[in-house]
Amino acid sequence: MVEPAIGLAGDTRHRRPVVVAGGVFVAASLVASAVAPGFGLLLAAQCVGGFSAGAFVSLSQASLMDLAPGTRERNMARWMVVGSLGAVTGPLVLAGATFTGRGWREVFVLLALCTLPLLVMAWRAHAPDPIGDDEPHDARPPLLAGLKAALRDREVLRWLLALETGDLLGDVLLGFLALYLVDVAGASAGFGGFAVAVWSGAGIIGGAALVRLTRTMDGARYLRVSAPVALALYPAFLLVPSPAAKVAVVAVLGVVTAGWYPIAQARLFASLHGRSGTAIAVSSLTAPVGLVVPVIVAAVATAAGLQVAMWLLLAGPIALFLVVPRAR
To answer: Domain 153-323 classified CATH 1.10.287.470?
Structure first.
C-alpha cells in the first residue's frame, strides 16, 4: 500500500533522504521488535519495518540500476546472489543464537546494529540522478501522469507479466515445497526443511552462474531457452516417487530458474529508463496479483489434493515463454 508512493518519491531529488529515512525506520523497527513486551507492539514494529524496507531496499535497487544502465541484468544477478546469501544466513544466525542459549530478541538487536554502517554507506554513496544531470527536474513529466503512462505501456506490462509468471516456479513453489514433500511425498518435516535449504543454495549457484552468463548471452534469450527446460524438469519433480530424487530435480530446477527474476526485473527498469522509482511503483502495484496465486493453489488443493494443485504452477514457464520476445 505504501511502496508505490515510495517509488515515485525516488524519482525526485529527494531519493537519498528517503533511502536513509527508510533505513532509520528499519533499524528502529528491529529495536522495537527486540524489546516488544507483547504481540501488539511486535506486529506494529514489523509493519513499520515492512514499508520502511521499501524505501531502504527497493530504492537502493533502483539506484543500482541507474549506476550502470548497460549492465542492469548482471547487477540484478549480483543483487539476487546477495539476497540469497541473506536468506541462507538469517536462519543460520537464529539457529546459532538458539544453540548458544540466546534468543530471537538478541538476533534483532544484532540486525539493528548491522543496519547502522549500511546507513552511513547509503548516505555517502554516489546517488545517480534517475534521468541525468543534463535534464532539469522541472522538465520531467508529473509523477502520477508518468505512472499512468507506464501502466499503459506494452513493454512495461510485458515485463510485469514476466515477473509474475516466473514467480510461479520461484516464491510460489518455495512456499509449498516443504508441505508438498511432507504431505504428498511422505518425507519427514526435517527433510522438508532440508529441501528448502537446497532450493536456497541452488538460487545462489544459479545467480552466480548468471553473472557470468550475462556477459555473453542476451537475457531474453536465456529466458526463452530456460523456460522449456523448466517445463520438462517440473513434471519430473512431481512424478518421480522418491523424496530424495524430488530434491535432486528441484535443485536443478532452482539453478535453471534463478535468473528469471533478475532478468525480468532488469528489463522492467530498462523499459522505464530514467524513471527507476516509477519501475518500483508499478511493480508494487501489480504485486497483489501474485498474492492471489497461492490462494488459488490452496483452494484447488483443498478440493482435489495438493498433488493436483501443484500442476497449476506449470503455467509459469509456459506463459514466460510466450511473453518474452525473441532476442534480436
So the answer is: no
